[in-house]
């Protein structure tokens, strides 16, 4: 490279340096940058990438990733373009820093108990930001747990989990969370099918006893909760329903989900005398599986008219009714389908088959016409009408090997992740999609290699009615040689791509290792759409009800009060740098009901609170009140203390719980 070229492209980087260290900026020059680049072996392209992503202290990120946390059971919040982890949100798994599940939050976790058993982890796959008119509104976040078919609600005023619901019909899900364009419903579909409620039935009765289903959880925005009493399910054939997406604009009112295992394979390989093929072969024998097309607005009417059966105390529209009412249609989709993604205008549905190098694009107008004309190529073995493939298919684009998921840009580009190729494909949407495509044109434009084995991908607001473009993140499954070794369990790798330029220029500009579980989907929202509180609105705030708790302890009302022969109540406040009261004395065997309010109003003045032996740890953010209960069954002397370094005298922020032994 020539020095002139090197220098001219680095003006931006030099500017960033100048902002960061104003006083020494005068002494620095481009030759210093060149020197460092040379020492570290950085190319011009590396330096440009650095200038695009480096975020000096105090500069805020433009976008925020809401990422599933995989088997951590949590959600991760990450800034873009800096790719800094901003926080985790405890959802299905207890988390001590947030005090979730160690004194408070237990009721929420208990809502997620499964068949009478505690489940204290989750496999989170698909976060869904709440939408208004098909655009993220920054208010709520939902996420599914694949391992136990649960759905969680997170309030984005405080980034905390408020509710977990367990699906009563199935025990495994995948096609969720997906919201309708105004967040009236949250969809959740079963994947590994079981008999209703995961009751027992032998595998030989798979076809008769096992069930597929999609649940429509009604979201009550005012209450900030899923309203189970207004939620229902639709029975589906016992295929393995997979990823889904909700229609929007042109296709509003419809819901699309794909499936694998239309073979109804039951596995069994490895058992002596068993002749069935193993699952991975058994579920991939058919050349096509089925895209499910569901008219959810019609389903809602059928449910409201009472045309359902109660199964496991939950209303279910039977497959028979769904067929009779025309709620459900199928159409073939290529081998081993995975992602299904609706284009921004809602006019096309993009499906990828993992074992087919094409994406297949369906036209919603053609689907509607085929439904109206009853243009069927037949029915499946459960009697569901199958729309003729050629009548609904618009185009196929050869993108590469192992296509999985697709996102969209503002300019008529679509982006598909290629698992086997380890690449991101950019291709053009035909039709009148922006200035790029005045004529219908479905073409691969370019591919950027990523490292390695990309799963989902996320473009900024790339699944909404108005994608932003600019950034795309490849959520890679393997990192292999990208980072310093940390043992045989390697981090995942989030790779940031610059998609702001049109054409073939689409470089990787940042790697972010994530060593806390394997994320799947993540959505990227414009940071200014989020409007979280910096402190709780008032002192004595209960985050669970999002209102002031009348029982919250307040200054001058602190006390330890015996309220029964074996019951003591504690009213405590915390403020830098003391807990009041500092001594809490109870008798062995007492039930202790303990309330603490953090009376701080300063931003970031969080106090922790922990008691040994009794497994208590809380996070008390400014204004927050918490209540926990335990039986003081172990006598002894137990220092409690503040676990956040909140002030110079933070070590002194402590007290003693004295449990007097029984005679
Ligand atoms: S799935 Cu993981 S790469 Cu659960 Cu959305 Cu496709
Ligand atoms: Cu409060 Cu440390």
Features:
663 residues; mainly beta; Methylamine Dehydrogenase, Chain H; Immunoglobulin-like; 3 domains; 6-stranded mixed β-sheet; 5-stranded mixed β-sheet; 12 helices; disordered N terminus; binds [4Cu:2S] cluster; binds dinuclear copper ion
What does this structure look like?
The model is unreliable at 1-20 (pLDDT under 50). A six-stranded mixed β-sheet has the order 8-9-10-11-16-15. Strands 35, 36, 37, 39 and 42 form a five-stranded mixed β-sheet that branches. The protein is globular and about 80 Å long. The protein has three domains: 10-53, no CATH class; 63-529, 7 Propeller (Methylamine Dehydrogenase, Chain H); 541-660, Cupredoxins -  blue copper proteins (Immunoglobulin-like). Helix content is 13%, strand content 40%. The protein has 663 residues and is mainly beta. The termini are far apart. Bound molecules: [4Cu:2S] cluster (CUK) and dinuclear copper ion (CUA). Residues 607, 642, 644-646, 650, 653 line the site of dinuclear copper ion. Dinuclear copper ion binds at residues 607, 642, 644-646, 650, 653.
Outline:
The protein has 663 residues and is mostly beta strands.
Biggest sheet, open or closed, and with what strands and sense?
Answer: 6 strands, mixed
> What is the count of β-strands?
44
Oligomer: single chain
The chain-level structural class is mainly beta
At CATH level 2, the architecture of the largest domain is 7 Propeller
Instruction: Please tell me what the overall shape is.
Output: globular
Poorly predicted regions are 1-20
What's the helical proportion of residues? 10-25%
The helix tally amounts to 12
With strands numbered from the N-terminus, the spatial order across the biggest sheet is: 8-9-10-11-16-15
> Any idea of the CATH class of the largest domain?
Mainly Beta
Count of domain modules: 3
- CATH level-4 homologous superfamily of the largest domain: YVTN repeat-like/Quinoprotein amine dehydrogenase
Radius of gyration: 28 Å
What percent of residues are in strands? 35-45%
In round numbers, the mean pLDDT is 94
CATH fold-level assignment of the largest domain: Methylamine Dehydrogenase, Chain H
